[in-house]
User: Fold this.
Amino acid sequence: MAKTLISTHDIAVLGASESIDITDGIDDTYNEYEFHFVGIHAETLHTDFEFQVNASDDEGGDFDTSLITSNFFRNYQGESEDTGGPTYKTDRDLAVTAGYQELSYMIDQDDNDECLSGMLTLYDPASTTYLKHFQSRTNANHHNGEYTLECFAAGYIGTDDPTDQPAITEIRFRFDSGDIDAGVIKMFGVS
Amino acid sequence: MPDIDKINNVAVADISKLDSITFADGQKVNNQDVSLVTDAHTLISTHTASSDDTLDITSGIDSTYDVYEFHFVNIHPSADSKKLRMIASSDGGSSYGIETTSTVFDSYHNEADDGYSLGYRGGAAQSTSEIIIGGSTGFDDDQACSGIMTLYAPSSDTYVKHFIAQIHQSSGSDYANNTFAAGYINTASAVDALQFSFDVGKIDLGTIKMYGLAKS
Assistant:
């Protein structure tokens, strides 16, 4: 397995932004894409980090038409010993919905050393036959900053017409409120 | 003349030398353009255990990369049912023990087909001791643990250092045990060394490979 770094999206270069949109490089060159999140820091307290895509039939669109069905679970550990084992979160999953898929939630930022890191894998986005599967695993400072929160989200993206599954060509990452104040997203292709 | 895809059934992209001559991306072979696969996944160092109390990685963790992967290959304990652990240093390994908060959960199933579970196994709360990243590993000759731990932005002087691990082990009780650990090393100072060990005994055998993922 060889990984090729396709593009780097660094807030230090781009400036704080409501979203990081990757609109180039997602094509049929690779059938597996990894998005690595490094030190993603929110402007706003207790926000959710999330993504949506544009398919080839809505390139340049507003990331609001692709339907996502997903599952989501998490576990956490507090610095003061309180814990929450792996628990399914019904308020974080989607069912054939054109909304944003959360990758983590209620992320802390007010002590300035808090952030999110992790990875999202998107499989075969150029397929025009299959739904597009994804898996993510992230770790973040949570709630009031005294928790480590690990989240697992996975699912598939497509239309509700099994005969019409356009390629995914663009992806947007954002917090549900406020800017991404710092951090890097790197997109790799896996050979 | 058609483009050359393969030479002696080897893909051109996989060939780095011809007759001991190294060629670079963009050069030509018999006037044909060559494009090599560039792997953004760089092997920094390999650490092989030989009945060691610990395996310490005290160099190469710096600002060169912002994502580091530690690949554990057949880490074999000297004692039965021991768990792989990690502890961090910010002074090059002179001392270890940065406060770390983590989660650990696992799933398992046994060879007898009568035991299975998914559950939280406890984490660390601001621990300055070694934290668990793997599950109970057997010490039969054919037992060990393998997996990957990813460490993010260890050289950051702003953020805590998040890590994510998934390690699978054959347990002393003959279970297939899949362990997920994650958390943060709670310091805004750079982390520049890691130490791996079992909770009891030595690391008899095994290899840890450290990779960096390209920044740009």
In short: Helices of chain A lie at 11-14.
